[in-house]
From TrEMBL:
Family annotation (Pfam families): Sulfatase (PF00884)
Membrane-spanning ranges: 15-32, 44-63, 69-85, 143-164, 176-192
GO MF: transferase activity
One GO CC term, this protein: plasma membrane
Name of the protein in its database record: Phosphoglycerol transferase
Principal subcellular localization: membrane
Region: Disordered, residue numbers: 559-588
Domain Sulfatase N-terminal: 224-508
Upper taxonomic lineage: Bacteria, Pseudomonadati, Pseudomonadota, Gammaproteobacteria, Oceanospirillales
Compartment(s) where it occurs, according to its Swiss-Prot or TrEMBL record: Cell membrane
Superkingdom per UniProt: Bacteria
UniProt xrefs under Gene3D superfamilies: Alkaline Phosphatase, subunit A (3.40.720.10)
Keyword field: Cell membrane, Membrane, Transferase, Transmembrane, Transmembrane helix
Length: 588
């Protein structure tokens, strides 16, 4: 009787209802003891806690349907009943021990939390945010989730310890299990690959392909630049079969300019600061790591060893502004822009006092309708104050995972937001960007201006996650403005590092061989790194790289360590094909 109703319950019951249903089903099937008083035995509660945690981890990491949790927990409890876990047939006296597996379990808990929060976990993102600073972040919802994860992990560790102390078989298997947990944790993959690089390569494969951004010729009348980063609004959403009309307003903008398809995401470019550095500096963001002198203090500079978009444009006389609704203290955003040629950096602290309604804020900061109002004001100011060209970089918030932050203007246009549907927020972000461009054009503020619309990175885990990862994903990248042919589409295997030279050439600047950083202009014919080597090979190379890391953070490397590195012998293992695409030395 019960089993025939399971599908209906899965569709319609709450998780509490499913949990009650599971207990009833297990009791009916004799998996649990039939006498109610035996349900009070601690081993069943311990096994239930472990089963729930195991099931949740599998469902999260493998991206399985939520109802799979019921099956996994049921199978786990059935195995526990069959093998008499916690109550062996030939029991031995309890032993007060602390299992070796406790620490590996904690590390797996960290990974599952990150996978549930962000979808794809990049170890580089963890290191960078720990060093660059996470003050004034907007993740109040994630703080609550972290607290719940912590309580769950404490329950898991207590349950595991209870079983290990009372069942000698768990004690015997504990050390082997600890090794399996460590070896299987994806957090350790890149660490192992970096260690292997010590004996397989000199760690400078990417660095040898780096080309300093040098302007060979500038246009007579350099255009202004408006660079709009749309938080997490990847071009994958353009697939109407999967996502309907969520991306429609960006498609409409694209028909007025040049759209680039196939812009993939390299490792160490998959979060906001990394995405901006990749597209403005032409390199992945390899964290400072142990190159940073003061490991427990926030970074005082961000990628000081290379020249980025702001440095190049400032040298050409541009007046540069950055505007974002979140705090510029988070993840070193303000430091990066101040260090690389920007005159004005406006974030939450600077813009919040200018709001008409001081309470119109989200967890991160300003909603994008407010931010875009201030963006229009900033462009008006730049137009009025001088004849030199200007550049404005703008970072939105509407599409921020997991649910987005749709503005009040979108609520009025689109109706009620359920708080979860990311496609609502994607449509909102696309419409707000469309409306901003329309307003600026009507005011005549985009004359001789290149408009660049790009996603900062692919989105992290959201309500449409299963549909997103069902096929290849690529970033939004389009150019609009005078001299940009309307309706043009270019499909190439590229990455966000290729945006840097592409937009410089789109502005009329000439680069040697169309290269800047590790990027290649998509307006030319030279092959990109992704076309030559593929994402998988590049990811492996990045795990082994130390040369580019030292270049990025030049100035933070202790003097003694630099001298030691310079005098150390190197071993280069490359084929002629590998070295064929290396950049020629360029004087900065």
């Amino acid at each position: 009787m019960l089993s025939t109703k399971l599908p209906d319950c899965i569709r319609n019951c709450s998780w509490d209802g499913l949990g009650l249903y599971l207990i009833l089903l297990l009791q009916t099937s004799m998996i649990l003891p039939s006498r109610p008083d035996r349900l009070k035995h601690p081993r069943w509660w311990a096994l239930l806690v472990i089963g729930l945690c195991l099931g949740y981890a599998i469902v999260t990491v493998a991206v399985l349907p939520a109802w799979s949790l019921v099956l996994i927990v049921g199978a786990w409890l059935g195995l526990g009943w069959l093998l008499r876990w916690g109550k062996p047939a030939n029991p031995r006296p309890p032993v007060r021990v602390w299992p070796w597996s406790l620490v590996p379990l904690c590390l797996w808990g960290v990974y599952v939390y990150l996978a549930e929060s962000f979808g794809i976990v990049e170890i580089g993102a963890i290191f960078f945010h720990l060093q660059a600073g996470i003050s004034d972040h907007g993740g109040s919802g994630r703080l609550l989730a972290a607290a719940l994860y912590t309580l769950t992990m404490l329950a898991l560790l207590a349950a595991f310890t209870w079983l290990a102390r009372r069942d000698h078989r768990w004690r015997l298997a504990d050390r082997l299990l600890a090794l399996v947990l460590i070896a299987s944790n994806p957090l350790f993959y890149s660490m192992g690959q970096r260690s292997a690089a010590i004996v397989t390569d000199d760690g400078a494969w990417l660095d040898r392909r780096y080309a300093a951004p040098v302007i060979q010729q500038a246009p007579r009348e350099p255009p202004n630049l408006l660079l709009l980063y749309l938080e997490s609004i990847e071009r994958t959403y353009a697939d109407r079969e999967r996502f309907g009309d969520a991306y429609a307003f960006l498609e409409a903008l694209g028909r007025r300019g040049h759209v680039f398809e196939g812009v993939r995401q390299l490792e160490n470019t998959g979060w906001t600061m990394a995405g901006m550095i990749a597209s403005q500096c032409g390199t992945p963001l390899m964290p400072a790591g142990l190159l940073h002198d003061n490991q427990f203090e926030p970074l005082g500079r961000v990628v000081p060893g290379i020249r980025c978009l702001g440095d190049v444009l400032a040298a050409q006389g541009y007046r540069l502004s950055f505007l974002g609704g979140a705090s510029t203290d988070f993840a070193g955003k303000g430091i990066f822009y101040r260090d690389h040629g920007f005159d004005r950096i406006l974030g939450r602290a600077e813009l919040e006092p200018r709001l008409e309604d001081p309470e119109y804020l989200n967890d991160w900061g300003l909603f994008d309708d407010s931010l875009y109002d201030f963006t229009v004001e900033e462009i008006r100011r730049l137009e009025e104050e001088g004849e030199e060209p200007w550049g404005v970089v703008n970072l939105s918030l509407t599409g921020h995972a997991p649910n987005g932050y749709p503005a009040e203007a979108c609520l009025e246009r689109q109706g009620e937001f359920d708080g979860e549907d990311i496609l609502y927020s994607v449509e909102c972000s696309a419409w707000l960007a469309f409306d901003l461009i329309d307003r600026l054009e009507r005011e005549g503020l985009l004359e001789n201006t290149l408009v660049v619309i790009a996603s900062d990175h692919l989105t992290m885990r959201v309500s449409a996650w299963e549909q997103l990862i069902a096929g290849e994903r690529d970033n939004t990248f389009m150019l609009l403005g005078e001299g940009i042919e309307e309706g043009q589409r270019t499909r190439r295997q590229a990455a966000t590092i290729d945006l840097f030279p592409t937009l410089l050439e789109a502005m009329g600047f000439t680069l040697e061989e169309g290269r800047a950083g590790l990027g290649v202009s998509l307006l030319g014919e030279a092959p990109t790194l992704v076309e030559q080597h593929g994402l998988t090979d590049l990811a492996a190379r990045m795990h082994e790289e130390t040369g580019l890391q030292q270049r990025l953070w030049e100035g933070l490397v202790p003097k003694g360590r630099r001298e030691e590195a310079a005098g150390a012998p190197t071993q280069v293992v490359e084929t002629p094909e590998d070295s064929a695409d290396e950049a020629r030395p360029v004087m900065q």
